[in-house]
Amino acid sequence: MSALHEINQNVRNIKPLVSSVLTRRASQIKEELRQGAKKPYKDVIDICWDDSHRAGVKPLSFVRQVLATCIYPQLMKSDRLPVDVKQRAQTLLRGCNGGSVGSYADTDTAEMINSISAFIKRRDGGASAGDIYVTPGSLWSLTTFLTALVNRGSLRTGVLTPVPGHCTTISVLTGMGAVAAPYHLSEEHGWELNVEELRRALESAQRTCNPVALYIINPGSPSGHVQSRASIQEVIRFVSENKLFLLANEVYQDCVYGEKRGFVSYKRVLGEMGPPFADTVELASFHSVSKGLTGESGLRCGYVELVNLDPAVKRCMATVFSLNNCAPTMGQIALDLMLNPPQPGDPSYPLYEMETQNIWNMLVHNVKRAFEVINGLPNFCCQAVEGGTFTFPRLHLPPKAIQRAKDMGLEPDTFYCIRLLEEAGLMAGPGCENGQKDGTYHIRFSIMTTEETMEEALRRLSRFHTQFTKDFA
Amino acid sequence: MNPTVKKVEYAVRGPIVTRAMELEKELSEGVKKPFSEVIKANIGDAHAMGQQPITFFRQVLALCSYPQLLNDSTFPEDAKSRARRFLQSCGGNSIGAYSNSQGIEYVRQNVARYIKQRDGGVPCDPDDIYLTTGASDGIVTILKLLVCGEGATRTGVMISIPQYPLYSAALAELDAVQINYYLNEEKCWSLDIGELQRALDEARSHCNPRALCIINPGNPTGQVQSRRCIEDVIRFAAKERLFLMADEVYQDNVYADGCQFHSFKKVLFEMGPEYSNTVELASFHSTSKCYMGECGFRGGYLEVVNMDGEVKDQLTKLESVRLCSPVPGQALMDLVVNPPQPGEPSYDNFIKERTATLSALAEKAKLTERMLNTVEGIRCNPVQGAMYSFPRITIPEKAVKEAVDNGHKPDMFYCMTLLEETGICLVPGSGFGQKDGTYHFRMTILPPADKLKVLLSKLKEFHQKFTKQYA
After folding, report:
1. CB contact under 8 A, A2 and B294
2. Which residue of B has its CA nearest to A289?
3. What is the pTM of this model?
4. Span A387-441, pLDDT tens digits
5. Is the peptide bond preceding residue A311 cis, with omega within 30 degrees of 0?
């Protein structure tokens, strides 16, 4: 039998997710409730992750109608489905080998690539798209891209990663023997990105690894910050000066709420900056069907757009992106529908418009409520959420609570979240999982949930927080 | 750049396929060619070649995608109740929610039940099941877990030659050591323990052999290993302390008389506790092959047997990093392991469709072997199972020389010429590995019977012409 010491060290080095403790306990609590246990709550509200369907948000009808028709083409005869649904399904099936969604979906079919290119062109005011690969999701895209860059050598490959950021990014890097070199977002300024901090982070990283890339999440997650054009330009100049790959995770581009600014893609800004930047900065942009108004995380599909890659690197990328790739057909269909939704005049347009508008209004409402409620509580504050689907409020924990946590061998915000789950039946993620400045504590929760769920969650959070503050005064 | 990536090749989708697609485009643009269509017999994609999906599966999946259809009277009741039950196991009752990273528990329970029944009652714990994105995902994950060490202690993995190129590509990418063991062409591509021993002993000098991969039924060779052979392999793995990786995705594709699929797990347990308590095994299955052919859904599972608890935790952790496998694939796997039962409304049609697909494949397997063996210079072993034929071809010396002079492998040259002259797309044997000095190609038996006949007769003509041309 293989023993632990015979397992890949990089895999062993991956830190288990802190919230897996919470997930396990939440399952147990749900079971206890099912068995009739008496608790101050009748159900567990899970807003730890931004999984919109799990949180009660409904899938978009048009997307699901087309998917069902593609899966079971007999539905073309049904008089219950709108004409444009059937037409779309027909077109999509023509693009499938053998006319079936069961065949391997060649991820480099002209139709799919053209569809994505057209979307990018429309979004970015006319500039043509770079090299596009359809993938089983943005995490896969990132992992695969890094596979081509990461070298096994005495000096480990490093990637500058945002704090706070996604815990999965760190796991991916650790798992491939690379280093995540953190750069801190500026909480006091709404979690904005500071180029001086990027410089500091790079210099620090260069002492212990070979930094090759800068990973950005815009709109930010869990930070909720949306970068200004000027900020994006600064970042582009920075990577150009320091010859770093720029990896832009833009999966939340549909979710921008602030009145200050809209979403502008890194690709667009890069193009508009003209030479030398436009021709030389190596950029990979990631998008996916998992987030935003589409929210089809379970279908696993996204794309990556690569720009200005050196020909040798391009060839490498072509290899890694085709090996083991096969974005599921249903995911690819959802991607195509997300990028090419019904247009005014199409039979499905009114319903699509209404459903997306409802989700949009819900998000705007939740963002406002979360901001109001949290900032109204003592020892609790949060920055405005300009985009994305999380809020990352700061906890000012009483020293007694911090001590109690340490005595139990827990991070203070993990301790807070465990108590929140036990006493209020509310599951949020501890800030330590996403990264934060030493000595600061946060929680993370999703605002991508129904308004009723958000109200109830905020009510429970308020009550719990007030009590917690009292208990550890 | 990562130097190991440069070593990675993936034959099945390589330059031949690119050229085939170019030719298709040219044909559609009206360019004149010596053929009217490109026949792609290179990839194991059944639906692409016209195999029909199982109606019941598609009905349940459609209902899961758009639950409003549960009110539609054209769907049978059993499909509806399956869809309802599955949706209950999904977050927010939607297939669009992330699932638990190990896979939906309800599905894993059904997979465990299927395995137990298939294996004559050998117990199966749902916690030992991981739902994966096709079998490939599971295979690569296990390899990732096992690869460690440096230099002479770097992990070595035994793979059969000829092999499915996913393995060699994955090993190259992980920078693991590939240990080749040759299947015996003269004995119907069977596995030879003496050959396993030779390969292993030689490998020990430059790496640390940890795992042994077997594909049964075989790809590209189509052999179905005998029970005796499986026992021998298990004994070998036990003796040499190797982790067995059994790729069993073609387990329903068995055609030859006298051949039967025996799962590694079943045989392991029937060999008694000396083996069943110690030999580490990972078995892989998928929704892409057999009678389903649903490659596009990316459904699969892996089952681990006798894995150390701490090691299993590492596996679980590694799977959690990639979030989850596609939920529609999990739904489909659920249906595959739990198909319609006698008495249920959809049962008769299900059996009819499954039987039709499998018997068509059996017919085509026999047809392929028969026709190819009428060609002088082509020798084809019986296609006992899976979806491919891997015949040996004799390439005249002159042709070998011309190929080599132009920097091509001789069988690649043969296949490229075949493609240009007949529109038939096959994969050269060099992509799968073969004994030095021998040449093969892999073709699938998937094209519809009438097209397959055309393919085989054109192939015969071509081979005769080619042989004469380079005499």
Report:
1. no
2. B96
3. 0.94
4. 999 999 999 999 999 999 999 999 999 999 999 999 999 999 999 999 999 999 9
5. no
Instruction: Note whether B326 contacts A328, CB cutoff 8 Å.
Output: yes
Determine the Cα–Cα distance for residues A374 and A395; give it in Å rounded to an integer. 10
| Cβ–Cβ < 8 Å for B47, A98 | yes
Q: With bands split at pLDDT 50, 70 and 90, how would you rate the model's confidence at B11? A: low
Instruction: Check CB contact under 8 Å for A103 and B147.
Output: no
Residues of chain B positioned with their CB less than 8 A from the CB of A65: 66
| Residue A91, C-beta contacts closer than 8 angstroms, at least 6 positions apart | none
Crossing angle of the two packed helices B449-469 and B410-422, in degrees rounded to 10: 120
- Contact call for residues B86 and B60 (beta carbons, < 8 A): yes
Instruction: Tell whether B166 lies on the interface with A, counting CB pairs under 8 A.
Output: yes
Q: Structure tokens of B126?
A: 């749902």
Q: Rg of chain B over CA atoms, in angstroms? A: 23
C-alpha angle B41/B47/B48, rounded to 5°? 45
Cα dihedral B165, B167, B169, B173 in deg (nearest 10): 180
Contact criterion met (CB < 8 Å) for A298 and B293: no
Residues of chain B positioned with their CB less than 8 A from the CB of A320: 5, 8, 173
C-alpha span between B402 and B409 (Å, rounded): 10
Q: Over the stretch A134-173, which tens digit does the pLDDT of each residue have?
A: 999 999 999 889 888 887 677 899 999 999 999 899 999 9
Question: How far is C-alpha B10 from the geometric centre of its chain's CA atoms?
Answer: 14
> Contact B320/A71, CB-based, under 8 Å?
no
Chain B residues with CB under 8 Å of A57 CB are 92
